[in-house]
Amino acid sequence: MLRSRYGRVFALARSESSATLLRSLGVTPIPGDLDQRRSLGLLAGLPDDVLHSAPPPAQGRADTRTLNLIAALACAENLPRRLVYLSTSGVYGDCGGERVPETRPLQACNARAVRRADAESRLRAWGRRSQVAVSILRVPGIYAADRLPLSRLRQGTATICAEQDVYTNHIHADDLAAIVARALVAAWPGRVYNTSDDSAMRMGDYFDLVADRFGLARPPRISRAQAEVELPAPLLSFMRESRRLANERLKRELRVHLRYPTVVAGVEAAATAAGRIAPAQ
Length: 281
Description:
By secondary structure, this protein is α/β, with parallel strands linked by helices.
C-alpha cells in the first residue's frame, strides 16, 4: 500500500533477520535500535514522512524510544513533513462504558498506557516547535484472521459475567493499514483520531462471537471478584477498563470507509475463509 504511493519505503531494523524480512517485502532496511540513540544517525534528514509504531519500553513512565527518535530526527536540517504515531486507546483509562471522543481528557491507568500518553505529549510538543505535522492514531484491539482468541477459547479461559462486563473496541488489521496510509497524506496537524470500527460490544460477547463462528464452546462466565483471582494479569488489565470509542472524526476528516465496519463482519469473514462459519445465533 505504501510502496505504491512512495518511491521508496525505509524501515528501521535492529536485527539482520528483520532486515531480511523487510527486503523480501520491497522495503529498504535502516540499521538502528530505538533503545540506542547513537545507532539512529542514519535517520537524520532521510524521511519525508514518518510512521512511528514502535511500542514503548517495558519499564518506566517515559517512552525513551520516542525520545531517541525525536532526537535523531531533530539532528538534521531537513525535518520530516509529517509524522503519524500509533498510540493506544488505553490512554483514556476506564471510562465506565461511556462513549469517548478524542477530546476526552487522558486518564491512563496502567503503566503501558502511561508511557503511550508520554509519547503522545512529547511528539505533539516537538511537532509544534519544529513545524512538523504530527498526528496521533489511538488504536484499540487489533484483530484479523490470524489474531483471534482461538487458543484462549480452546483452553476454556473464562470471561466476566454479563452484568459486570466491560465494553471493548476493535479494528481489523486491514482497515488499520488503510487508515495509516490515509493518515500519512490527510491527517490534520496536531490532530488525534480514534481508529475504531462501529461496534459497541462487550468483551464476553466478543469471545462468544468467535466461539460460535468457529464451532467452539463458549467460555464460562465468572464474577469480577473471581476474575481478579483466577485470570492472568495481561487479560485482567483489559477487563478493568470499559469505553466505547467515537469514530466520527475518522470518517469525516480522513474519509475512511471501513472494509469491516463491525467486528461481526470481520470475524465472519475470517470464519468463512477458514471454512468454519456457523449460523448466526
